[in-house]
Amino acid sequence: MSAERGDGGRPARVYAPDFLTELFRNPLEPGYVAAAERKRRNPPPAWRTRSARSVSLVVLVLLGFLLAVAYRQTMEEEPGRSQARSGLVEQIKERERQTDELSARADQLREEVGRQRDAALSGSTAARLRDLEAGTGMGRVRGDGVVVRLADAPGDADAVTGTGAGPPQVLYTDLQGVANALWSAGAEAVAINGQRLTATSTIRSAGKAILVDFRPVTGPYEVAAIGPGSMKRRFEQSRIAALMREVADKTGLSFGVREADDLTLPAAPEPRLRYAEPPGSPSPSPSGDRSASPGPSGSGTSPSPSGGGR
């Protein structure tokens, strides 16, 4: 910007060209222009240009050769990997089949033991034992109840409404909350995808898998419960039901509650219980040290017979 004298002796303002206009008019930095001009005036020797092209060509050939070798090795190893993967899948299916057969055999043996036990016991004792088994989950039960169904949302999110934008998978905490809410609503027996819940049952996650009593369950998840007729209404009024409805509206996750007649819930497997044992008897204290022996109340001194103090 330069200043000139205008009328009246005051300096007149003269503005430089607009910055963007100058930038589009001369986009190249002056240093690059000077370097290009020097290169044009003093071009490199022809042998240097040819050698640079030769080196580039050799590098490209080597890269192509290495890529071809890597691709060939990958394709040669692919059948072995596919075979190993197929073998693992077959082993998993075989183990699952064996597990199902053993579970069915265990159910048959449990029923046979129950029949033999009922025959050996009196009628009232056997009925009481069956009631205890039904209450603890060790016996199969039938009755009317409620089924809560949860399913993962579709993988694609709606670009307009945003449905499916949140976490679309059912979490193990969702199953925990639904099961606890059903118990609170008066459920007498609960099962998740056929896995009966007991007082020692666990609902956990391992990676993306959900485990119920260390057995994997897959979606859609159905939490079935047997209980009184008011159980559905009480469950729908619970906090977890309201939360799951809100999550379903925001993420597209499927959540539904329906009444079901004549549900049959299987018995749970026999639990592996661990019992606490009292520690060994402490070593007797020396007879001379009477102050160290505890009194009847477990304190260092005997309580006052008259009930003194508080």
UniProtKB/TrEMBL annotation:
Keywords: Membrane, Transmembrane, Transmembrane helix
UniProt-annotated stretches for the region Disordered: 76-122, 262-310
InterPro entries xrefs: DUF881 (IPR010273)
Gene3D superfamilies documented for this protein: Protein of unknown function DUF881 (3.30.70.1880)
Amino acid composition bias (Basic and acidic residues), ranges on this chain: 91-118
Record-annotated membrane-spanning stretches: 51-71
GO CC list: plasma membrane
Bias (Low complexity) ranges: 286-310
UniProt similarity note: Belongs to the UPF0749 family.
PANTHER family: UPF0749 PROTEIN RV1823, UPF0749 PROTEIN RV1825
Name recorded for this polypeptide: DUF881 domain-containing protein
Organism (species): Micromonospora globbae
